[in-house]
Amino acid sequence: MWEVDRNMKNNKLQINIASSIALQVVSIVCAFILPRLILVSFGSSYNGIINSVNQFLSCVTLLRAGIGGVTRAALYKPLAQGDNNKISAIIRATEIFMRKIAMIFVLFLLIFACTYPIFVKEEFSWLFTFSLVVVLGISTVSQYFFGITYQMLLQADQKLYVYNFVQIIGTIANTIASVILINAGCEIRIVKLASAIVFGITPLFLFYYVKYNYNLVKHITPDNSTIKQRWDAFAHQVAAFVTTNTDIMVLTIFSSLYQVSVYSVYNLVISGVKQLVTTCSSAIEAMLGNTIAESDLQKLNSRIETYEWVLNVVSCIALLCSAMLIVPFVMIYTNGVIDTNYEQPIFAYFLCFATFISCVRLPYQNLVEAAGHFYQTRNGAIEEAIINVMVSIIFVKNYGCVGVVIGTIVALTIRTIQYANYASKYILKRKLMAYIKRFTVSLISIFVSMVIYVVFELNKIVMQADTYLKWVLHASYIFIIVSVIVILINTIFYKEETKRYISIVLKRFFY
């Protein structure tokens, strides 16, 4: 019986990870198609204003900040026990909270739509910017609020694949509609309005799936006590929001829309890579939550060690390849766009390193969230946000895009150490040295790879790629070299672990 239960959990995890990977692949492909069309059809200033507005509108995520992690943490135990009344009460409390937040967002949207045009009045008219903000706002509220409660339920129940499949359909439909409208010569606001309609429809699928697959009690009294930590979790979400969005906001206020466009193009590439690297995190968080609920410290440490090894190796390979290949890719991607300079190698290196830090800290971040330790780690989240903003503002004037990424790196580094220290001491009950060793091994892998990259002048070879086909061929060459270096170095420091994990992969796919 136990073996059957374990197999079911493993199958859920595998389906969740596979569907997450599929969603990220679809999202990345579609994300590259639309900005390219916008750049070619409308220009860098239009691409800049769209990314700028979207980043400011993502402030709305702060209104719902904390509720997602707290709701999932509260659902793990009643889902494991099959307590339908408890599940219903938690979902009811979350629904009521999200409806209030949606009403607040409408007011925020109107105020922002009236004030934002002041910042870009030299490039666009007040009426155009106002209407564009409203249209993009409709799309934002559709994605962030409708169906999010059911997304939390499905994720906590290890059925994230349902949400992923719905998002895949919505993303593809949005891309097809946008491409048709742009090629037909429609104005950008019409294109974005079509996106809002598509993303407004997709949450209905989640609603009906939950309705017919969960016996939720509709008029039950909401259990607000289970989400009482939402204000502590709020601090964590603020930090995550600042880390993700501060750069473009600071560039918008202290630099120009052209710098915003440069940042957004590079970030489009690197965020796609990050999504592929971290795609299993949402599924694994639910697994960690269930393990913590079982109070099996040995099993928890074993799973974390596996998670750490895989994530560090994959992060090193993916982000080293990105650092070496991102500039020639961007030059091909922006071919024909001559209104600003997109060749920014130093900025690319800094951005890749910042993304690497944000990836390797995920095991400890997931542990804290799965355990529901939001209050205990709240102050560190607030410090991360403040450091990021202050350092970014200090350096942006003289260093532009590089300056804001410096702020991100400093804040991420400090917060990652805090996460690792807390998780090691209070959840895993192990010494911090285990984390320090893993991170040091990763840094050695990065250093050795970059030395070989420079000494053998691979950078000159890569920069010769002027078509997507040539770039793919160079990318394959770089990927093989980097993979061998990273795995070899990890084998030296983690000989038994590397053998075990490679054996697991081979058995999984070839036996």
Strand and helix layout:
Layout: H1 2-42, H2 44-57, H3 60-63, H4 67-81, H5 84-115, H6 126-144, H7 148-156, H8 160-183, H9 188-201, H10 203-213, H11 230-254, H12 257-277, H13 281-294, H14 297-333, H15 345-360, H16 362-371, H17 378-399, H18 401-427, H19 433-455, H20 458-462, H21 468-493, H22 495-510
Helix pairs in contact: 1-2, 1-8, 1-12, 1-13, 2-6, 2-11, 2-12, 4-5, 4-7, 4-11, 4-13, 5-6, 5-7, 6-9, 7-8, 7-10, 8-9, 11-12, 11-17, 11-18, 12-14, 12-15, 13-16, 14-15, 14-19, 14-21, 15-18, 16-18, 17-18, 19-21, 21-22
Strand content: under 5%
Determine the structural class based on helices, strands and strand pairing: mainly alpha
The major pleated sheet works out as: none
Specify the number of helices. Answer: 22
Percent range of helical residues: over 70%
Low-pLDDT regions: 1-7
Description:
- The chain contains 22 helices and no strands.
- With 511 residues, it is mostly helical.
- α5 crosses α7 (148-156) and α11 packs antiparallel against α18 (401-427).
- The longest helix has 41 residues, at 2-42.
- It starts with a helix and ends with a helix.
- Residues 1-7 have low confidence and may be disordered.
In short:
The protein is an all-alpha fold and 511 residues long. The protein has helices at 2-42, 44-57, 60-63, 67-81, 84-115, 126-144, 148-156, 160-183, 188-201, 203-213, 230-254, 257-277, 281-294, 297-333, 345-360, 362-371, 378-399, 401-427, 433-455, 458-462, 468-493, 495-510. It is globular.
Features of this protein?
511 residues; mainly alpha; 22 helices; 83% helix; globular; disordered N terminus
